[in-house]
# Entry
Amino acid sequence: MYDYFIIGQGLAGSLLAWKLIHAGKRILVLDNAHQHASSWVAAGLINPVTGMRMVKSPYTELWLQQANSCYQQIEDELEISIRHHLPMWRIFTNQKQLDAWQERISAPEYADYLEEATIDNNALPYHIKHGTGIIHHTGYIDTKQLLTAIKQWLVEHNSYLQVELDYDQVMVGDKLITLHDMQANNIIFCEGYRGTHNPWFKQLPLTPVKGEILTLQHEQPLPNAIINFGKWLLPINAKQFKFGATYDWANIDQVPTAKAKQHLLDALHKQLNCELDIQLLQHEAGLRPNSQDRLPLIGPHKQYPNMYCFNGFGSRGSLMIPFYAQHLLLHLLEHQPLDPHCHIDRFS
# Structure
């Protein structure tokens, strides 16, 4: 008998399971080991100031505080290193971006996040026509290492089952959920893009978006910083980097395409101000679980209060999920209300 079934071992399911087990709950994570889910493919970027207009969410401080605490706990307990703190160099590609930056950097709420910077083309091998700036509190999470380590930890806690979920096998009662001859008091769906097929939450505006990322290598040493010029370049060691990403709303599959690869390589070479001998090491594709308003989809089913959705984190999951996992934990265990901005009732 379990307290919770958790469906999906992406970043959302993993961090929620981590918190529930540490709260003393008996859980079982059911996962199909799908390696093309966005959590496995994503670069794990942490960036609190995003978009062409460089906007910071009003929840940013809460997200960062909980992310730092959660990932630190995981690193300490599992003896792994998954957090990589890197500044982000923002290269402005037009005057509108520079104007937006100047507006933001003069605002007090951005003082801890943005820094003026002057970088010329001799410092970086990129065209710089409209200036640059530095964004702080940025970096990335090694999501593959994190998910691999948590999977092993769940196995050691007898809390993991690799299985392909058949929705028809989920029997929902007033107080118990029955699945594969096992029972739990609650079930939480952390399915990412596969949530579009969930019969209980199919009314939610979950929109999968395909993203493709390249892992590249060249012999010139890279600066120890994330480079962002609409696309992002993320150094993973002295001469290798990830580069992405694409956004494709039409082709909802996990197949890397020659078109996306060429699009990314063209974007990179267009920004470079010199010729570099670049070698392609890996080309990956995944599906992000985006919501209509780019905020999470969290809450119980109207008819079945012991059935929950925990989804919709899009491309900012590494930053957002630790906070919302804690938020849902407090709702489940201490009956604290879910904040309206993330509650699925906003779409009812």
Notes: The chain has a mean pLDDT of 92. Residues 149 and 241 are 23 Å apart (CA to CA). The first helix runs from residue 11 to 22.
